Structure formats: C-alpha cells, structure tokens
Amino acid sequence: SAPERLLTVAGLRVSYRGIAAVTDVDFHVDAGELVGIIGPNGAGKSSTMHAIVGAVRASATTLEFAGRGLAGQPTERIARRGIALVQEGHNVFGRLTVRENLRLGSTARASSDGLAEDLRWVLSLFPILDEFADRQAGLLSGGQQQQLAIGRALLAAPRLLALDEPSLGLSPTAVDTVFASIAAIRERGTAVLLVEQRAQQAVAAADRTHVLSEGRITMTLGPEHANDSALLMKAYLGS
Ligand code: ATP
Fold first, then answer.
1. pLDDT given at position 8
2. Name one GO molecular function term (predicted).
3. Ligand 1: distance of its center to the CA of 161 in Å?
4. CA distance 86 to 150
5. Quick check: ipTM above 0.90?
6. Which of 31, 102, 110, 115 is the most buried (most CB within 10 A)?
7. What's CA 93's distance to the chain center, in Å?
8. Closest CA to 92 of 47, 45, 49, 129
9. How many angstroms is it from 213 CA to the middle of ligand 1?
10. Ligand 1: residues whose CB is within 6 Å?
11. Measured in Å, how far apart are the chain's first and last C-alpha atoms?
C-alpha cells in the first residue's frame, strides 16, 4: 500500500512587508520519510519551516498535515496535531533543569500513552540527558543543549519532527551526534523535515533534499548525489 502522505505543501508563499521570501514552493513528506531543505543564507528555509508550524503568515494552494488544512491554525494546535519544531539555536530553558525541560516537552503530547517508553528511548538516544538530569540546562554545552532541544521535541510524540539547522554552531563531534540521532529518529518511524546548511550531510541522510534559492526550489537531490561536490556547489551558487 502507498505510504501515508503526512505533509503537503503546494504554492507556498511567504512575504515580509510585501517582499517575497518564499515563492511558490511545493514539496511533501510521507510518513516515516526524512526530507531535507538546503540552501544559502536568506534562501527562505526558516520561513518555509515557520509557515508550516504557523509561526509566520503564509499563503498556499495546499498546506495540509495528515489530510487536514494547517492554514490559519494557531501554532499550539499545530503542535498538538503532531508537528514539533526545534528552532534554530539551542532552545532550552536555561534556568530549568534538564529533567524539567524534558517534562515541558511531554506537556505538548496529544496523549500520555507511551510517555514512559518515549522517555526511556530519548534517554537511550541521548545518555547525557540522563546523566545531567538535575543540572541547569543553561550549564550544558551547545551540543548537549541541542540534544536536549531535540529530546524535548520528541517527548511531544510528533509524527513530524521539524529541525531548523540543528548542527548550527556545534563542534564536529556534536554535529555527528546530531546527525546520528536524526538517523535513529527516522529509523524509529518519525518523519523528519531537516533544514540544513551542511549540504553534504543533509543530502546523504535524507530521502530527498530540496535546494532552495531565493525562495524557490531549484533542484531536488537524492542520497546518491551526496558526494557530487560539483553538483552541491552548483546547487548553492544557484547557477
Ligand atoms: P538563514 O539560513 O539565514 O536562516 P533562511 O534560508 O532560513 O536563511 P529565511 O530566514 O527564511 O532564510 O529568510 C528569507 C528572506 O526573508 C531573507 O531575505 C530574510 O532577510 C527575510 N526575512 C526573514 N525573516 C524576516 C522578518 N521577520 N522580517 C523581514 N524579513 C525577513
């Protein structure tokens, strides 16, 4: 049977004060897929992500999640319907402990069913969160804070995890940890929408990666293109 269509985006447009940041973007994510969006600074990646979760105003011919429209819905309702966003930067509550941050993630779940199992899984994915459960989140390293932000999002039990540049500003080891966790999350069945500037790693990890340039999708790459550096370069330069 055909995989379930989770997210459908067609004719997406985002403008700021009349200036288009995203123009006519089309793509989809099926259940369990990992879809990448890459492109240079200012290409419209974050705007696309924010439009999906209702954080910026957008227009679209189709913007649907699990067969129902997302347009005009408040961000909180979209979260409850199964999309969790991890924003760019390390979005943790620095004064709260790791455990408290994780607990906040679980408050966004549609149901408490499976919470204990999800928590065990998150702590096995990111053992440092178990070790530092009682530490203030603000005292963690950047890489550890990113693990916490992803762990918190997972405890909302999303069907689609939207990650906005999760590797930004991390050490090489921390970047590897983040990418390994993304593979494991997808392996467990959660679909992932991954916005990245690290083209090679994103293309290697994703089922499809859309190249965004000046608000439009200019190219779509498969994992077989991950080592074609000439193509990736061309994708970035938009030529
Ligand atoms: P980055 O990697 O720098 O986050 P991006 O690909 O995510 O880039 P966006 O952040 O979506 O790109 O920005 C797309 C365009 O929209 C840019 O020209 C940016 O300056 C503009 N823009 C983004 N947010 C706003 C805003 N709140 N108000 C006005 N212009 C904005």
1. 97
2. ATP binding
3. 21
4. 6
5. yes
6. 102
7. 19
8. 129
9. 12
10. 16, 21, 39, 41-47
11. 39
